Model the fold of this input.
Amino acid sequence: MYSLARRMMFCLDPEVAHELSLELIGAASRLHMNRLISKPVASRPVEVMGLQFDNPVGLAAGMDKNGDFINGLGTLGFGFLELGTVTPRPQPGNPKPRLFRLPEKQGIINRMGFNNKGVDHLIANVQKSSYKGVVGINIGKNFDTPVDDATADYLTCFEKVYPYADYIAVNISSPNTPGLRTLQHGDGFRDLLETLKHSQQQLNQKFGRYVPVAVKIAPDMEDEELVQLAKTLLEYEIDGVIATNTTLDRTAVQGLEFAEEAGGLSGDPVRERSTATIRTLADELAGRMPIIGVGGISDAASAADKIKAGASLVQVYSGFVYRGPDLISEAVEAVYSQQRARIN
Done:
C-alpha cells in the first residue's frame, strides 16, 4: 500500500507531500486504521541513557518539528520519537523551494532552516498527546540570534521542555542556520555544554527527574575534531551523542538533478560518512557514552551496520520517506539481532 501511496506523493512538491503524508498518518491513527499502513513491530526493549525504550529504532528530528502528529507517528511502531528542531520563537524558515528529492540515490536535500511554530506550541502538543513511548525534544537557536548569543536560546528551550521531554537533543550541526556548526568547537561549545549541564542539575532538583542530554553532530568533521569533541562531551558528562546530521558533501550525488542545491544531504549518500563518524566516536568513547546512529538507514543491513559501528540506538528519516513503515520492523529485527550477536 505504501508503494502506491509513495508514487502518488512523489508526483507532488516534496514539502507538500511531507505535510500531506503526516496528515494522512494522523487521520489513519484517529480512525484506528494504522494497521493498513504499518506492520506490527515486536517489542525489543533496551535501556539507554537510563531510559527504557520499547525498541531501539526511533524517528529522527525534522519529520515532526512541532509535535503536531505525535499520536499518529506513535502508532507506527517506533521505539521513540524525536520532535523538533524547535526554537524559542516561531520562525518561517528559509524561502521555498527548500526540499529536494534525489531518488536515484534515495537522498534528500533540505534547507528548511528550523521552520517551526516555537517551543510553546510544541510543549502544548506534547502535553495533550497520548503517546506512551520515549519522546526526545530537539532544540536549536532562532536564525536571527547571533551565534555569540546562541547559548541563551538553547537555555530558554532547555528550561521550557525539560518537564515534558524524556531526553533533550541539542542541535548544533544543522548546515541551514548560518554559523550554527561553529558551536561544535572551541569556547562556544564549552560554554554551551557547561550552561546546559548546570541547568540540568538545577532542574533535576526542582522536578525530581533527571532528563538526559544528547548532542547532535555533523558528519563533516575530521577524525581529530571528532576525538576532541568526544573528550569534551565526556568532560562535561553529556549523556549521549547523536551521529549524524546531514552532510554538505556532494561527492556521492554528483551530476544528479538538484545535487547542487544548497542545504544538507541525507539518505543513502550520507550512510558511509555517518557510520565512519560513529566508529571513530565509539573508539574514543569506549563505552562511556551511548551513541544514537542516524544517517542513511534504508534497510536491515544499514541499520545493523550502525550497531556494528558502535551505536546503541538508531533513527530513521529519509529511509522512512522512501521505504515507509516497513522499514521500522525490518530495522528493529536487524538491530536486535546485531545487539544479541554483540553480547554473545
